[in-house]
């Protein structure tokens, strides 16, 4: 399953912003996979922190082979050392176990998250051990398919903004200016900024403000 968007979102963004319109034209449609299962998405994101996408996929594949379906019952049927044996750290194994326990005893209500506003869902998800604001925002985008996610903490989004708009630096005020322009379709704008940051348009460069060289004493 891919993140769903179409001509409505693209037309709105093209009309709002000429530079983004050119980016959309040059890159064309973007397909980004989503995971509609909120439980597995949280687990996936905890596993994936500070490791490569390939390493994350390897660990996830091992868990699926071991458990079949990765759910709270499966995780609570095993122990921390076995979870670590799939390739994750002790701390991540603890976070995953804590999350599974909260889901099983209903102190964390997955169904309720779907009914919440973006702000409330981010707050609730980031109350979990191992989930920060940025991770919660990524879950809203790549699991829940929320249409208006724009993460200030995402370094690739900031890089994409610098490249498209020739900014030297992105502070919160400038970031919010772009957010207002892209709302209510920030998620689609994010997809294109990530693509730019990843080199989808080779002639675009990063205008990041370079640190001044230190004076020799």
Task: Write structural notes for this entry.
60% of the residues lie in helices and 0% in strands. With 217 residues, it is an all-alpha fold. Helix 3 runs antiparallel to helix 7.
In summary, what is this structure?
The chain is an all-alpha fold and 217 residues long. It contains 13 helices and no strands. α1 crosses α2, α3 runs antiparallel to α7 (90-104) and α9 (118-125) crosses α10 (133-142).
* Envelope shape: globular
Mean pLDDT: 95
The main β sheet shows up as: none
* Unreliable residue runs: none
Q: Any idea what the radius of gyration is?
A: 19 Å
What percentage of amino acids are in beta strands?
under 5%
- Count up the helices: 13
Q: Count the strands? A: 0
* Backbone structural class: mainly alpha
> Whole-Å distance between the termini?
58 Å
Q: What fraction, in percent, of the residue positions are helical?
A: 55-70%
Features:
0% strand; 60% helix; mainly alpha; 217 residues; 13 helices
Q: What is the topological layout?
A:
Layout: H1 7-16, H2 18-27, H3 38-48, H4 53-67, H5 72-76, H6 80-85, H7 90-104, H8 110-115, H9 118-125, H10 133-142, H11 155-165, H12 172-182, H13 186-197
């Amino acid at each position: 399953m891919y993140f769903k968007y179409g001509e409505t979102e693209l037309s709105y963004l093209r009309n709002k912003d000429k530079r983004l319109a050119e980016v959309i034209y040059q890159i064309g449609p973007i397909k980004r996979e989503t995971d509609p299962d909120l439980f597995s998405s949280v687990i996936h994101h905890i596993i994936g922190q500070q490791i490569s996408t390939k390493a994350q996929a390897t660990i996830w594949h091992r868990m699926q082979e071991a458990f079949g379906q990765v759910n709270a019952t499966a995780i609570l049927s095993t122990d921390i050392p076995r979870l670590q044996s799939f390739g994750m750290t002790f701390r991540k194994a603890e976070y995953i176990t804590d999350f599974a326990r909260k889901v099983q005893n209903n102190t964390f209500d997955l169904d309720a998250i779907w009914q919440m506003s973006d702000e409330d869902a981010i707050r609730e998800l980031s109350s979990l051990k191992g989930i920060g604001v940025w991770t919660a925002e990524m879950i809203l985008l790549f699991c829940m398919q929320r249409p208006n996610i724009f993460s200030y903490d995402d370094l690739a989004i900031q890089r994409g903004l610098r490249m498209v708009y020739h900014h030297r630096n992105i502070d919160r005020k400038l970031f919010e200016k772009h957010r207002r322009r892209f709302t209510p379709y920030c998620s689609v704008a994010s997809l294109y900024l990530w693509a730019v940051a990843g080199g989808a348009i080779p002639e675009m460069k990063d205008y990041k403000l370079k640190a001044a060289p230190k004076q020799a004493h």
